[in-house]
Write a structure and sequence with these properties.
Elements lengths: L26 H8 L2 H8 L13 H14 L3 H7 L4 H6 L13 H27 L10 H14 L1
């Protein structure tokens, strides 16, 4: 059964919505607002069964693959970084900040197997459209970006 991303962002008294403490001009906030998530969900709907337990929402898993492609990360690394980055969580459709991994690496593997090479190519094209060609970026990977920013702040 197809899991759905919550469209209604219901407030909880004990949790602050992510969109309240992120910069809306950040590349991932802008990218999240530009991507037509509903049409992507409709495109990948045939890969889900109408019966069984609800799946991971397509926006979350497709968002993770987009982040993985953007920073040239492994499945394990993208899932390790995700809980500490509110911009990534907002990009993937989370309403509230989460401190645990959203799913296991086997879920990413089985999703890629289900959608096949054509689906992966579609996701790669979205990555290039939204974030440009990763080869043209000054940071080759996520960890490279973090190291340079950290040392720039320390050293000046």
């Amino acid at each position: 059964m197809l899991g759905r991303t919550r469209n209604k962002r219901q407030l909880d008294i004990f949790e602050v919505p992510i969109e309240r403490f992120i910069n809306r001009n950040h590349e991932f906030a802008i990218g999240a607002d530009h991507i037509d998530w509903e049409s992507l969900e409709e495109h990948f709907r045939p890969f889900y069964s109408p019966r069984g337990r609800p799946s991971i929402p397509p926006r979350k898993i497709i968002g993770m693959i987009l982040l993985k492609e953007r920073f040239s990360l492994s499945d394990e690394k993208v899932l390790k970084i995700w809980p500490e980055n509110p911009y990534w969580q907002y990009f993937c459709g989370e309403v509230h900040f989460r401190t645990e991994k959203p799913f296991t690496t086997s879920e990413l593997t089985s999703f890629r197997r289900r959608i096949g090479p054509a689906g992966i190519e579609m996701i790669r094209n979205i990555t290039i459209k939204e974030f440009g060609n990763p080869d043209g970026k000054k940071y080759k990977s996520y960890s490279d970006r973090r190291k340079r920013n950290f040392w720039k702040r320390i050293i000046g």
